[in-house]
Amino acid sequence: MLNGARVGVVVPAYNEEGQIGTVLSQIPDFVDTIIVVDDASRDRTVEAAGEHQKRMNGRLVILQHDRNKGVGAAITTGYKKAVEQGLDVVAIMAGDAQMDPRDLRDLVAPVTEKRVEYTKGNRLFTQEGWSLIPRYRFFGNLILSFLTKVASGYWHIADSQTGYTAISLSALRRLNLDRLYPRYGFPNDILVKLNVIGARVIDVPITPLYKVGERSGIRVWRVMPVMVWLLIKGFCYRMFQKYIVQSLHPLVLFYTMGALLLPPGLLLGIYLVVYRFTTGDISPSSALLSAFLLISGLQLWLFGMLFDYLDNARLR
Questions:
Q1: pTM exceeds 0.70
Q2: What's the number of CA atoms in the CB half-sphere (13 Å) around residue 236?
Q3: How many domains does the chain fold into?
Q4: What domain range is 96 assigned to?
């Protein structure tokens, strides 16, 4: 226990035979329950985890998927088990040993103290993040983090892709766990859903661990289109649920009008530039129309973002 709260750790694992033992052996003693969720691994991940069963003194629970469902689905399975057991706070520690167990107390404490419902590790607070995270993943993370700010409404949250998090039992009970995204975009999707239920979220500085024997199958530029589409859907879902169903907030009008004006203005501008360099002069009225659409659409979007930022400041 920590600060009088029962603490659980969910360990999603897929083909982590070589790393799962390291993760389990380093989980701090204040953790009451450890839930390993094997996502239909093809190696000995389950057996390797089972070798720690006796040493854990009944703290270890091992669950298995009958087929590979994705890391998000594995986390969701762990969450459901945690809710079933009534754990007050549930943290996520991946089975690849890339999450420093020394950061777990700092990550869990704000939730046990009931200051927030969700904490999210941030590898970018210190220069260590820049020096340790591979460059292509760092820049991909920056792009996705900005898009996640827009989609989720948590403008103060930076490192969107880290999965080192902790969540309260009350937040888990308010979320529809069956609607959470099952694969790589899970950290982004859950932020959208947490915003809709009004959960308070903060960043917690953590230390990234790399070259500890992990094997990453993620290709940033391959998953980027999928992630962008997921965030667009998440943004639309949040706008509808939070600012139409719940409150009828005028920022929806700013976003809507901006979305109607900005794309045609951009397309018209591109067409006029191509026409100017391939055919000849363009009419001043066409140029003015393009400028009007672009400027008006951009201003409307910026106003929408500002209202969204101010409305969500209370969730810090």
A1: yes
A2: 7
A3: 2
A4: 7-242
